[in-house]
Design a protein that fits this description.
The chain is an alpha+beta fold and about 180 residues long. It contains four helices and seven strands.
Length: about 180
Amino acid sequence: MNARLRLVLACSAALLAAAAQAQGHIKPGLWENTVTMKSDNPAMEQMKARMAAMSPEQRAQMEKMMPGMAPGGTPNSIRVCISKEQAARDLTPDNDGRCRRTNVVHSGNTTEFDFSCKSARSDVSGHGSFTRISDNAYTATSSAAMVGKTTTTHMTTDIASKFISSDCGDVKPIETPPAH
């Protein structure tokens, strides 16, 4: 996965975590996220075409190398473990200054926010929304523009998350990316 895509994903995760924090306590355990990403980047369509032409074994190997990352708007389900420590701090991201969120507005069970993230190669900015459906489910969306040295890529991300179990099994917690 290239550095720009990693930055977009890191920003999305950090900002959705920040919105989750604003909405209240997320319980620890195993969550299943169905993620749909769309981009106007031609490379995503090229990757989708290449993967379609692969043998099932090659496609499986590629998917193993990029878990949860199907190209071109294909929904992916990924399982995420939220540790007790993460839940206790309401998924608050670490604070190294790479990402910011502003214009945070709470209305009922929905939080909307603007965000921006910076790296050496590109800047990402956009708008996101987090809606808590219940203690066991939430949805989130974001729309972002990633500005690199020579190109601008627009991306949308939709996430539907549901609680699976208080036992994460063999899924290890992942730390939320830096933000503030």
